[in-house]
Design goal:
single chain; about 170 residues; alpha/beta; Rossmann fold; five-stranded parallel sheet; 6 helices; about 15% strand; globular
Length: about 170
C-alpha cells in the first residue's frame, strides 16, 4: 500500500480546509490533493476558491466543493456542517484566521470581536462537530494552526496573541 493509500485509509476520502484561498491553508489543500484527498475548500473569496478548486481538480483528479463564507458571522460554521453532512469527512484543517495590530484600547472593537469569532468561536464549533463525527467513525484528524505569539503576550498584538493562545491550548 502506498503512502497516499495509507493516508486515505486513515482519514477517509474528504477533508475540510478553512482558509483555503491563500497562505498555509492553500498549501495544505495542495498537499492533501496530491495525496488524492477530495476537498471542501472554505474561505470568503468565492472567485479565488473557484480558481483553486479548478487547479486542484485538473492537476490531481480529485473532487472539490467550495464554500464561500465568513467565519466572523454566526451562521458560517453551521453552513459548513450542513454542506458536509453527507460527505465522508475524515480531516479538518482549521486554517482560517486573521490578526490586528495596534494599541488594544485604540483598535476597532468590532474588528477585535470578529477576530475572536474567526480565530476562536468558529474553530471551537468546527472542532466540536467534526471531533464528534470522527469519534463515531473511529477515525479522523484535526489540524489547528496556532502561532509563536501564543506563548506570551505581544505588544500591539494582545488580542491576536490571546486568540492564538486559545487555539494552542485547545489543540493540546
Amino acid at each position: 500500500m502506498t503512502n497516499a493509500q495509507q493516508f486515505l485509509e486513515r482519514y477517509g476520502s474528504w477533508a475540510v480546509v478553512t482558509g483555503a484561498s491563500d497562505g498555509i491553508g492553500l498549501e495544505i489543500a495542495r498537499c492533501l490533493a496530491e495525496k488524492g484527498m477530495n476537498l471542501v475548500l472554505v474561505a470568503r473569496r468565492k472567485e479565488v476558491l473557484e480558481h483553486v478548486a479548478s487547479e486542484l481538480t485538473k492537476k490531481h483528479s480529485i473532487h472539490t466543493k467550495i464554500i464561500s463564507t465568513d467565519f466572523s458571522k454566526a451562521h458560517a460554521t453551521q453552513e459548513v456542517i450542513h454542506i458536509t453532512q453527507d460527505l465522508e469527512v475524515g480531516l479538518l484543517v482549521a486554517s482560517a484566521g486573521f490578526g490586528s495590530s495596534g494599541e488594544f484600547i485604540t483598535t476597532d472593537l468590532g474588528t477585535e470581536l470578529s477576530m475572536i469569532d474567526v480565530n476562536c468561536r468558529a474553530v471551537t464549533e468546527a472542532c466540536h462537530h467534526f471531533g464528534g463525527r470522527f469519534a463515531k467513525q473511529k477515525r479522523g484528524g484535526i489540524i489547528l494552526l496556532s502561532s509563536i505569539v501564543a506563548f506570551q503576550g505581544v505588544p500591539k498584538s494582545a488580542n491576536y496573541a490571546a486568540t492564538k493562545a486559545y487555539i494552542q491550548v485547545l489543540a493540546e
